[in-house]
Every structure is written in C-alpha cells, then in structure tokens.
Design goal:
Chain lengths: 427, 504
C-alpha cells in the first residue's frame, strides 16, 4: 500500500509550487483565524457536512488545509476533491463566532466562500479541476450560456435559444432597465422566468432584455474559472453599456451575488450599474399598490430561504412579506436563522460534480418541509428548484417559485416549463 | 509494554477494513483525511502535526463494524483512536501513535424517542443542538449544554464525562446518559448502566459499570449507542448578571445564591477581573460596563412559570445583597443566550505590548471547593504572569468559576483559567514551557484538595503525569482494569500514563 502523500510536497516544486505558495500567502491569515479558534460551530449548519459526516468536507478543514500546506504537510492535489464539497451557501461564515462577535472589529470576518473559490482557482491553474466542471465550463464558453439542459449533443442550449422562454411576451431589447435572465431560468424552469416578466409587465415596470445575453459568469467564478468569469462579465457590461442600460434586475440570487460582489471587484469604480433584486422589487410593487394580488391560492406552504438571499445577503423579510400578501395562502414559516442550516445543495457547482450529495441535501430539506404538513415548498432561487422539486417528487410535495405564486395570485396565465415540478404536478 | 506507533498501514489491512466497511468512501487513507483528524481545539503542537496523524480513518455506521475493526486491530496490535466531534479541550481524539482512527460522525441516528419512559436512544455521532431540534416537537429536551453545545457529539461527551452549564439543575453528562453500548478493546459489544436495564436510572445490581466507562477517553473502548434522559422543556427561563467592584463580595454572593435553596437554579458563573478585561477588548462582544466593575456573577433559573417568577425575586435580592449591581436586561437576555459563542475568541489574543495575535484557547478546568477559590485564583494568576513574561506567546484570558455539582449548586466549582496560546509560534522549547505551565496550574488544584479536571479529562501532557497523584491508591486499580480489558494496549495508547499498566 502506498499512500497518496508518499511523494513529499517539497519535491513537487517549480512553477506549480509557486502558485500554491501564492495561494497560501494570500489566505494563510484567514486560515489561521479559523484554525486557532477551533470552535467548529460551522459544522452542523454546513449542508454538505450534515449529509457526508466527513471531517474533510467541513469549513474548518478548508481553512486548516491552508495551514497544512504552509507546513508542507499536504498539497492542493491532496485536497482538490475535498474543495468540491461546498455549495458556497455561506452558513459557516455567519455561524462563526469570529464573524458573529468580533470579525468586523478586527476586519477578520470568516470568508470560507472566498477561500473555497480561491482553492478551486488554484486547482484550475494547476490542471486539477474536476472533469465535470471542465466540460461544463468548456461548453459554457462555447455556448455562452450554461448547458443546463445537458452536456450531450443536440440540446437546445446556447445563444440560439436564449430567448425562447419569452415567446409571445413581446419584451423589447435594451432600455434603461433590463431583466437579466439566468441560464437555468432561461432554459430549464422557464415558468419562473415567464412569471417574472409578466408580473413586471402587469405592474407597469418598463424593462427590456439584453441584446446578447451571455451567462453572468458567476458559476465559472464559483468553480474556479476566474478568467472565463471575467470575460463573461466584460461582455455583459459592454453589452449593457452599448444599449444604455442603467439598471439590471437580477431575477436569481446567484446572479445577484455575482453582480453585486464580483462585478464590482472586476471593474472597481467603473461599475456604475444599479442592481435590483427581484424579490425586493416585487415586495415593493405589492406595497405601493402597483401589483395587486387578488386571486386566492388555497394552499398551505412553507418557504425555503435560498442561501444566497438569506445567508449571504440578509434578504429574508421581503419573501415573507410577499407570501403573507397572497390571499388564501396558509404560510407555515420556519425562521431564517433556523434556515441557516438548510440548503438545496444546488449551488457552487456541487450538482455537476457530486449529484448524489445535492440529492441528499435536497432530500433532507424536503423532509423538513414535509414535517410541517404543507402542500408546497416555495423557493426564490431557480437553481434550488430543480433539486428540491426532484426530492419533492419522491416525497410527494410540490415545489414552486415565489414569483410563480405571485403571478397566479395576480391572475396571470404563465405557461413555460417547470422542470421537475411538472413531474410532481403530473402525479 | 508500549504499543508501537503505526504511522502507515499496509494494503492487506486496508483491504480488511474495506471488507468490514463495505461502503465506498468509508476507509480513508489520503493525507487530507488524516491531517484533518489530527487535532482538536485544545492547544496543539503545530510544529509536530505529522506525528499526530492516524494511519487510516474509518467511518463506521454500526456497532458491528466497530467491533470488527477493533477485533482486527487487537489481532494485529494496531492502535485505535475513536473520534466524535473532535471538539474536546483535551486530546482524547488526537492520535499519539498513529493507528486506525474510528470516526463515529456517521452514527448520528435517533433510534428511538420514548416519551412514556422518558428516554431517547441515539448514535454517538449526534450533536446535542441537532438532537434538541428534533426533540422540540415533543416538548422535551436533552439538557447537556457545554460551551461546545452547537458542535460536540454525544460520543465525545461520554468519553470526556462532560460538564453542562445547566448541570446544577439537570445534571451533567454522566447523570443524563442512562445507559450506553460500548465496544470493548477486544471487540465484545456490551451495554452498561447503573446496573442492567437500558432505561433504568438507578440500580444496585453488580458494579456500576456505566461510571467506570464514563470518561474513558477512548482508552477502554468505543461507545456506539446511548440512551439519554428526556427532560420537559422549561416553561420559563430567567437570567441575571450582577456586577461587583470587589471579587470577595462576588465570591460571597455566589455562596449566598447557591445555598439559598432555590431549586430552579441551573447554575452560577463567577467572572474575575482578568476575564472582564479580556471581554472588554472588543466592545462588540460584551455589553459595556462601568470601569469600576471587576467581577461578575451570572445566574440562571429554569422551571415552570410560577416557580421561576417567585425564585427570580429572591435571586434579585441575593444578587444585590453584597453590593452587586444588576447589569440590566440587555445583558441578562443577550449575553446568556449567546453564552456559547462569545467567551473564547482567538482574535482577542494580545501580546504583552498589546499587539493582536490570533491565539488558541486553552481552558484549564479544575474542580475546586468554594473556600479555596480566592487563593487558587491568586496563585494561578501569578503562574500565568510568569509564563507570559518568559515566553511571550501566552495570554491570560481570566478565570470563570461555574457551579459543578449535579442537581445541586453548592460545594464545588468548575474553576477554569483560560490561557491564549499563539500556536503558530510554538517550537519544542515553548511547547515544553506550555506543558510545565499547565502542570504548575494543575498542581495548585491538587494542593488545595481539588481535582485537576472537571470536564475535559486528564490525558494531556502536563495533566497526565499527575493523575496517579490525584487518584492515590485508585491509580493501581485503574492500571489493573486497563490491562485486563485491553490486554494489548491498543485503545488510544499513550494517553494518561496508562502504559504503566503493562510495565512488569
């Protein structure tokens, strides 16, 4: 038996070694702030750790690995698969006592998501990126959109089909405000996208679509393909500028993260686009009377706090306001702090590489909803809706997007596909 | 006989383990799996990390698998180290001689909730907060609440014989675990309680084996299932903090409260001057208090509404009797609610010149009687000052004294001095200095008739050498038990000087 550490890290030097040293240098203080704490309060809220119960996949390991690299105990090769085990939900960051109590004071908030993304970028630089991600991002680069309908040939993915979802809705191209359509929303769960556009139309919000809409670049950034992510961001920003866009409505939380965190990091002060989150916008439209929800929906529902809204952006009041505004709806809430430990498993590229873990995470989430004795689990993140609806199909519970419910209550006929939720509806 | 270190295992052993486990990904030989299970939050000789890695990690799901693994290890004489949360402040889950690490995190099922006879039976890999999330719907809870409540696991709680912040009201781990299943060092699976009976709390049959194995630190086997107490969720909680300008008054106030006969008193916590100075280092983390405050007494009541309402009036009088000032509702509610999060933060570490350095927390957790606390506090502080001066990588984070007896708040206290250690800078000399530091602290506890550890265990260097002194004639009995149950010294070898059992 030979171990995979039989080659001493010190012997794997050269150019590759330099990249790893730079990574360690950049992140070692972050790593040590976690390592020296050792509280591990992050573990039982981590959606991956909750299902794999493997200490390699914990936020503490992701930080300790940096220290271990610094001490020449291991190399990025040894932990490459471990760093795949993260949905970048951010639960560990907000549950960390460093963040909760003193992180701001010392400017040392725990930043696991950044650490994981940097480790994945190092993997890409060293050719250690996983096969599934490699294919996914190559196809994204070719198609300019993610291959959400499948990585095999002949799928209606890509630029030729990027506006298929909008058939018959007569949405103009360009304008000061555009609705940015996420890849999953454009190709897979098109009911969500149509509902969003129709709700905005009904409320009298003027908006257009992008001239040439590429992927936002966020998934590439999450999987470590930094240059590709940046190239997509540059294209999109140039496209917006060319058609005079001043405001982008992000209809999906992952895009919202990317536009509000990565784009400003790429472009600095030059990034002068206002980014509007759809859930907050719709809540506002309801509040100010522009959108009237009058058709009752006689269902009992609970709400899934999408990680990127709740844990990473602190958006949890607006969706609850919306659900409480729908007549007939019985809303059984689970508070947003309890939901720090909830996730669909759909983020961070996890379902591409480790679909079985995504499935397990979604099964757990749906089981928690099922305990509440509800008809439906409502989410506000299209990426969560595929794994949740698949789990829901098994468990006999419907999964819908909050804007789809808003559309229904506003009396809108939506159309479009609901992906795995259609299976459940057909039961 | 000292069991030889096993830092690598050969392919045949891995194949046998894989055959036992029969599940992909449950036998881990990669360096990341081993490096990430080499330490716990307690200070760690970072410069000697590699010496503490296991040779192989297994992630069992059943007692039968654990039994087969141990039988294999016993046959070929490979050390076995169990690991639950790996959140201990002792080094029970840290391998000293490599070997097979049995990581029980996947044994986290709730097997049975018995509301009639008031027990819940679980695997050792479940966390108490997670368990209580599940129990909430039944109106009951499992009140084992250490500082690591959100992350430690039931198996580790048993292995360390843990202490609970609410122990004076609801009992500690040894009181709350009714019975448990343990795999012996020779592979037999047995169940131990007070006597027999999985759900029986009190028995006079035979020797009380539950108490023998409680606090085993992995040296006598691996716990694979536990039957735990279910307690009604308290209807009311009342917390109050009182501030003092004099430690003696605060110390006497504790006495007044714990001897008052308030049955709903879950515990008291006494903070000394250094502790308050530490907490003041960042006013985000602690409710600001006037400069005259140099000690705090924190208290909490749990019970039915009528009980707590009446007792709270008495408590408020007692807290103020010796000059204590109530610190207000914000601290009472907020600080008590977040008590597990805010008391040991690495970023509060300070070098002598005030520079911030991220430090690991070490909690030296003696059991001491009330009368000796002021004297011990003085001596501990003087020792800390000396080592801080000499090595420059330690920091005094102050003293807490918590009520320590089960179901009664008087008598003895978990007295801890919290020391920050800048692990990053450790080398052989400063590590040896740390061990001496720790040992001096522990000797003071013994000098004053205390015990060197209330809840973490005594396996660490600096403590381990003193166990025989504390145990007296009992140490020889311990050695006989160890040798009888673990003839080949495979269970967590090297811990607590138990190698002496094989010297003859």
């Amino acid at each position: 038996m030979t171990f995979d550490d039989s080659t001493s890290p010190a012997s794997r030097a050269g150019q590759d070694g330099q990249l790893q040293r730079e990574f360690v240098e950049r992140w070692r203080q972050n790593g040590y702030n976690c390592f020296s704490s050792g509280h591990k309060f992050c573990r039982e809220v981590c959606p991956v750790t909750q299902v794999t119960r493997n200490e390699n996949h914990t936020p503490t390991a992701f930080h300790a690995n940096i220290i271990a690299m610094d001490k020449d105990l291991l190399d990025i090769e040894d932990v490459a698969d471990d760093y795949v085990h993260c949905t970048q939900c951010g639960a560990c960051e907000i549950r960390c006592p460093n963040t909760l109590f003193v992180g701001d004071f010392y400017q040392a908030r725990t930043e696991t998501v950044k650490v994981v993304r940097a480790a994945r970028a190092l993997m890409v630089d060293k050719g250690l990126d996983r096969d599934g991600w490699k294919l996914w991002n190559r196809l994204t680069n070719d198609l300019k959109n993610e291959p959400v309908l499948g990585t095999g040939d002949g799928q209606p993915n890509g630029q030729d089909h990027v506006r298929d979802w909008a058939e018959g809705l007569q949405i103009p191209i360009g304008g000061e405000t555009i609705m940015f359509v996420d890849c999953e929303a454009a190709f897979y769960r098109t009911s969500n996208t149509r509902a969003t556009a129709q709700v905005l139309q009904q409320a009298g919000v003027e908006f257009g679509l992008m001239n040439e809409q590429w992927c936002c670049g966020g998934p590439a950034a999450e999987m470590g393909y930094v240059e590709q992510s940046r190239a997509f961001a540059e294209h999109n920003l140039a496209d917006w500028r060319a058609s005079g866009v001043k405001r982008v409505i992000a209809i999906e939380p992952h895009d919202y993260i990317h536009f509000t965190e990565d784009y400003p990091a790429y472009f600095g002060m030059d990034f002068d686009i206002e980014v509007v989150q759809i859930i907050e916008l719709v809540a506002e439209l309801i509040k100010n009377g522009q959108l009237k929800l009058e058709r009752p929906i006689n269902k009992t529902v609970t709400y899934h706090d999408p990680c990127r809204l709740n844990k990473r952006k602190g958006i949890h009041e607006a969706p609850r306001f919306i659900l409480n505004s729908i007549p007939g709806l019985i809303f059984k809430d689970v508070d947003h702090v309890t939901q720090w430990s909830y996730c669909s498993g759909g983020g961070g590229g996890l379902p591409i590489e480790k679909p079985e873990i995504t499935e397990a995470i979604s099964d757990v989430r749906v089981a928690r909803a099922k305990e509440l004795d509800v008809d439906m689990l409502v989410s506000a993140c299209v990426w969560s809706e595929r794994p949740l609806a698949t789990a829901g199909h098994k468990a006999g519970i419907e999964v819908a997007d909050i804007i789809e419910l808003v559309a229904e209550s506003a009396g809108i006929e939506v159309g479009g596909r609901r992906g795995a939720s259609d299976l459940e509806a057909a039961r | 006989m000292t069991t030889a270190p096993v830092m690598t295992v050969d392919a045949a052993i891995v194949a046998e383990l894989e055959a036992i486990m029969n599940e992909p990904g449950s036998v881990l030989t990669g360096v990341s799996s081993r490096a990430n299970r080499a330490r716990v939050p307690a200070p760690f000789p970072l410069h000697r990390w590699a010496e503490h890695m296991p040779a192989v990690v297994v992630l069992p799901r059943t007692a039968e698998q654990v039994s087969e693994i141990i039988k294999l290890a016993n046959r070929v004489k490979i050390p076995v180290v169990p690991r639950a949360g790996g959140t201990g402040l002792n080094d029970g889950a840290v391998p000293l001689r490599g070997g097979i690490m049995v990581d029980v995190k996947r044994m986290n099922q709730i097997h049975e909730v018995d509301l009639a006879d008031r027990t819940v039976t679980v695997g050792p890999g479940i966390n108490m907060l997670k368990l209580n999330e599940e129990l909430k719907k039944y109106g009951v809870f499992y009140p084992d609440t250490p500082a690591s409540y959100p992350c430690s696991l039931v198996g580790g709680r048993i292995a360390c014989s843990g202490w609970s912040l609410l122990g004076s009201r609801f009992g500690h781990t040894r009181d709350l675990v009714v019975s448990f299943e343990i795999v012996l060092p020779t592979g037999e699976i047995i169940r131990v309680g007070d006597g027999g009976g999985k759900k029986v709390r009190k028995s006079s049959t035979g020797y009380h084996l539950k108490h023998l194995f409680m606090g085993h630190q992995g040296t006598l086997g691996i716990v694979t299932e536990a039957t735990l107490e279910l307690v009604p969720r308290p209807e009311a909680e009342f917390a109050a903090f009182f501030a003092f300008d004099d430690f003696g008054n605060a110390h006497r106030t504790v006495y007044g409260i714990v001897t008052s006969g308030i049955a709903t008193l879950a515990g008291t916590v006494l903070f000394d001057e250094k502790k308050i100075e530490y907490l003041r280092r960042d006013d985000e983390a602690f409710i600001p208090m006037p400069p005259w405050v140099n000690s705090i007494v924190a208290t909490a009541l749990y019970g039915t509404k009528p009980e707590v309402r009446e007792a709270s009036k008495l408590l408020m009088d007692l807290g103020r009797k010796e000059g204590g000032r109530y610190t207000g509702d914000e601290m009472a509610v907020g600080d008590w609610a977040s008590r597990h999060d805010r008391y040991a933060n690495p970023l509060h570490g300070r070098l002598k010149d005030g520079t911030v350095a991220p430090m690991s927390w070490h909690c030296e957790d003696a059991s001491l009687n009330w009368t000796v606390i002021p004297k011990v506090r003085e001596e501990w502080t003087a020792i800390a000052d000396r080592y801080i001066d000499k090595f420059g990588i330690f920091d005094n984070w102050g003293i807490y004294c918590y009520t320590n007896a089960a179901y009664k708040p008087w008598g003895d206290y978990l007295a801890e001095i919290d020391i920050g250690i800048w692990e990053e800078k450790l080398d052989d000399e400063s590590w040896a200095g740390w061990v001496d530091f720790k040992s001096e602290i522990a000797k003071v506890s013994l000098k004053y008739g205390g015990s060197i550890t209330a809840c973490h265990g005594s396996t660490r260097a600096g403590d381990a050498e003193l166990v025989s002194e504390e145990m007296g004639g009992g140490w020889d009995v311990m050695l006989k038990i160890k040798r009888t149950l673990d003839p080949n010294n495979i269970m967590n070898p090297g811990k607590q000087m138990l190698d002496q059992a094989y010297e003859s």
